[in-house]
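Morning - adenosine-5'-diphosphate inputs below, output right after.
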Amino acid sequence: MNLFALSGLLTVMTGLPIAIFVYWAGSDKISNRLWALFVLSVSGYGWATYRIALLEDMGSALFWWRVSMFFVILIPVFFYHYTRFFLNIYNPKTLALVYLSGLFFLMLDFTPYFIHKVVRVFGLFYYNSDPTFFYTAFVFWFIFLVFVTHYQLWRFYKSASGEKKNQIAYFFLATAVGFGGGVTNFLPIYGFNFYPILNLAVSLYPIIMTYAIFRHQLFGIKVFATGLLTGVILLVLLFQIFFSQTPSELVLRSLFFIIVSIFGMLLIRSVLQEVRSREKIERLAKDLEEANEELKKLDMAKSEFISLAGHQLRAPMTAIKGYTSMLIEGSFGKVAERSKEALERIFTSTEILTKLTSELLDLSRIETGKMKYDFNSVNIAEIIQNILKELEMNARNGQIALKFKNETKNDIKVWGDKNKIHEVIINLIDNAIKYSGEGKNVVIWLRNPVHGSSGALVAVEDFGIGIRQEEISKLFGKFARTEESKKIRPDGMGLGLYFAKKIVEDHKGEIWAESKGQGKGSTFFVELPVA
Ligand code: ADP
């Protein structure tokens, strides 16, 4: 056997099993079917080459050359189609044109307008010679299609990433080697004295592809490997049947063959099922990821809407508050006592509304990452004194005494945003007032820190409704409220502590609460690092 025949035989031997397995591993998938057709065309070409290389008679050499060309015409067409599919390119018109041009050459193939003469080359076999116009057109068409397809692959390769990039790389390598070698077969036709030795490269591409399949799971590697192994075992068993010496051996071996076939089929089926369910899970995971992205976008849109609405509400509320307070003070003339009461209610309600609006605005700021800080050295004792003045009226209404116990010697300064720290502490003291019964006192302690070696610890202690142990850690979450507090103060939103925690954490401090249980009061702690 000469090398040309060997290259043909090798191409069939590597290509055919791959074509069968790829088809069989996913006959319902277009990609598998297309790739199988492509490999089958190459195998057909290999088979015809094998025949040509061994023929002694000129007449049948011409026939086998035409058979060989039949497959060669199909190769770039299927390759082109498969690549388009693999790269998700949808262009039906171009595809139709490629198929039509392929059909055109197929129709010419068995006429003298394509191949009309073969000559003996290298003293070994008959080779296609004296190319016709259409044959040369075909050579250009072939090279052009292969070039365009590889160019597409290359462009996608540059922008692809991860697994897809690897797949394209192997794909590219395999087909480039195969085509690169195969194209040199045209040379002797045009009078170049080049033995078509590179035809051997054509048989290499299925090997590279197989490696790619094993490494990068192009067509479901598990099914492929299981099928291959089962096939080899069955082939060996079949041979054994043929070489049986006695009838009993024949029966026994045939029986064994049948049993192994059944188990092999069952094995393959279970692997196939496993692969399918894995594919399903992967698809579900992808859907979930997309849904999650969508939710994030909606969440963002919601935060932006709240921010917009909040800003729009602010101005009218300030006007309502301002004018109500002027009416109460009598700036627009004397107000009857009953009307005054109503006006005071309007004023308090508007204040609650203002607080809610600013809480919603803060929430949207946190969620959109727009919380801004102005860090400076801050005197904590001073902040507490100011807050006590602000809340004096509130406390007095509930007959609550606010006591400030400063246990630090010098005025402690911490590093932070004055307004934000003010917001945190006022919220704690306001809560202490809100959630204490009438006549209960609230004590505010300023101490040296427990956790850090330097800094300040503010503790707000009350003797009010208290908190159940299991609820303490939850209170710093968004919209968290205890059932008891809802009964006493239905107007709260459960956002104050959530903001406080966020602010304190942004100051690299700590915030926590302690309570001996329901009805036994609670203490809220804030620790901030020193300036
Ligand atoms: P709001 O007070 O507007 O509900 P906060 O975030 O400030 O929101 O507080 C969250 C919840 O924590 C309150 O609803 C209440 O259930 C609980 N809480 C806060 N401070 C105290 C306290 N001093 N005593 C008892 N419960 C408290």
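Note: The CA atoms of residues 18 and 471 lie 64 Å apart.

O.
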